[in-house]
Amino acid sequence: MLWTDKYRPQSFEEVVGSKNTVSQIKNWINKWNNNEAQKPLLLTGSAGIGKTTLALIIAKEIGEFVELNASDKRSYDIIMETVGESSSTQSLYGKSHKLIIIDEIDGISGNDDRGGTRAINKIMANTKQPIIMMANDFYSKRLATIKTKCLVIKMPKIRSPTITVALRKIAKNENIEVENDALKELSKRSNGDLRSAINTFQAMVSYSNSLTMEDLDDLEYKDNTSNIFDSVIAVLKSKNVKHVKEALFSINEDPTLVMEYIAENIPREYTNKNEIKKAYEMISEADFFFGKARQTREYTYWRYASEFMGSGVALSKKETYKKFSKIQSPMAFNLMARSRGKRKLRDEIAEKISKKCHVSKQIAISYFPLMEIIFKNDLWAWEFSDFIGLDDSEIKHFRTKKIPKKLVKELEYKKAIALQNKYKNSLSEGNNEDRNNTKIVDGKINSKNTDNIHFDDKKKGNKSKKSKDKLKKTENKKETKKTESKSQKSLFDF
């Protein structure tokens, strides 16, 4: 039998760790027993600190319970069929309430768990029964809609001396000889995970019935990789330089990203103006060394940057603040996410300008202030947008008002006539080329098409020419009238 099951606490008195957590849970149970409906209980914290144990003790206190494990499929339909029905019906055994337990809700993901979070939110809104849920990662995105509707209890890691006491008690009951230093070292290496420490202890003494320091030589430390939020909390909440360094060293993230998180949350944790000023001075120094590393490709500068943004910020405060501060992601990232569409539009406009004007995108973007001035004039706005090839959404980047439809129609008509005249001129130039190919040799016409020339055809040609000339004259008169009526000058008339 596993010792984690054999020595699992059976009552609140046997639970090791935070007494404050136990008192909060007792108060929650008492209110339910007095028929005072409470918010669902959400226990969060790292693995092996007793979340499931507490849930089972609560179940004993209440009586009947329904459990949904992490190993079960937790799709919308399955949750609604099992937990959903239980949450809205009374106990079969005459008890006033039955407890609903949902383990590792931050692990609901994938096709098997499709719609699981939606089902949990629906159950919480309509439940008549107490609900307790457990999660490892307090900052998981899957908990965003759930946390606001729950009584959240953040359970801390179990301290090494507490783990040592628990292991010594097991050793005494199992008649195992242990060295005190070995037991302390094993507790440290478990990194606050009591379950891991007990399992490791059982595995190491299963053959020898003893534990020495030599037995720990091949034992690695439990994976101490923390997330970015744990590291930020360590910097802002602690003044212990060793603890801060360990927290930053254990994280597997871009250090500049960690610096952004620390910088964002300094004023949320620190309240003294001088402490905030000093902390930001440390961030400034860290940013300087990160810049040095980028410029010189000498990444040893990261060491100095980490010292400033870690130990420097931690020691900027006189005393640690005993309050809860929610860690926020940097506002710069939120602003970038919001402005993603604007930046994309800016780049598309710059791309068009760079192609037409044969300049780089960066220089094209530098033209934007001048273009805002140009686009104040309706005629210039149309001419420029037509030349570059801007659509309505791109024109809006430089002016709020649309170009008047009447003006657009007139200018498009003018453009169409100009293109038509250009086309006619190109045709006439083509006829001149044919004339050039016709030569007079010894008073006779020498041409490839002389066999098909007739006098009548020439007459017809002359008539068609006269009609074309008349059309040209009338069109030119219309154009002159329109240009005279306009007071605005063209952008390209200089």
Automatic annotation (TrEMBL):
Residues 472-487 have a biased composition (Basic and acidic residues). Residues 460-471 have a biased composition (Basic residues). SMART domains: AAA (SM00382). InterPro entries: AAA+_ATPase, ATPase_AAA_core, P-loop_NTPase, Rep_factor-C_lsu, RFC_lid. The keyword Nucleotidyltransferase applies. Residues 426-494 are annotated as: Disordered. It comes from the Archaea. Pfam families: AAA, RCF1-5-like_lid. Residues 37-159 form the AAA+ ATPase domain. GO terms for biological process: DNA replication. One of its GO terms (molecular function) is ATP binding. Keywords: ATP-binding, DNA replication, Nucleotide-binding, Nucleotidyltransferase, Transferase. ATP binds at G45, S46, A47, G48, I49, G50, K51, T52. PANTHER family: CHROMOSOME TRANSMISSION FIDELITY FACTOR 18, REPLICATION FACTOR C SUBUNIT 1. Belongs to the activator 1 small subunits family. RfcL subfamily. Part of the RFC clamp loader complex which loads the PCNA sliding clamp onto DNA. This is Replication factor C large subunit. The gene is dnaX_1.
